[in-house]
Hints:
It is a single chain. The chain is α+β, with helices and mostly antiparallel strands. It is 32% helix and 36% strand. It is built from 4 helices and 7 strands; from the N terminus they run αββαββββααβ. The chain has helices spanning 2-30, 55-62, 128-137, 142-148, and strands at residues 35-41, 50-51, 65-77, 84-88, 94-99, 114-126, 153-168. The chain has a 5-stranded mixed β-barrel with strand order 3-4-5-7-6. Strand 4 (84-88) and strand 5 form a beta hairpin. The longest helix has 29 residues, at 2-30.
Amino acid sequence: xxxxxxxxxxxxxxxxxxxxxxxxxxxxxxxxxxxxxxxxxxxxxxxxxxxxxxxxxxxxxxxxxxxxxxxxxxxxxxxxxxxxxxxxxxxxxxxxxxxxxxxxxxxxxxxxxxxxxxxxxxxxxxxxxxxxxxxxxxxxxxxxxxxxxxxxxxxxxxxxxxxxxxxxxxx
Length: 171
């Protein structure tokens, strides 16, 4: 009888100990990921930002947007100064974002981070020499840029008044 009580006691203690460890693991998994946030240009907030992939559809229905807030992943930045960046539209094309009055820049290590941008979206024809210039600023060789860009392009562009860049800690 004494052996049964001792074994039962040890089993109950073992179960309690095992449950306690699982609770701690669950708490660790549920903790929020810390983020680094940086602001560039005018101070804006992320409230009511629309996914950048929705912009093409909005502009097809409503035309250029004088004031819109978008959120998406930064694809590329100017590697000379951080004076422009790109985000992917729903059709897979890159939208170039410039900064109002050339008044601010973004960090050159921004690709892959999430950004909220506020400003105006419009259609613009980009001359071939400017397309080549952007390609070289982005890290492409002059020869590659000359081969890739042979004619002007009509594209959606964005002039940002403010940018928020968010990065998960440890990335």
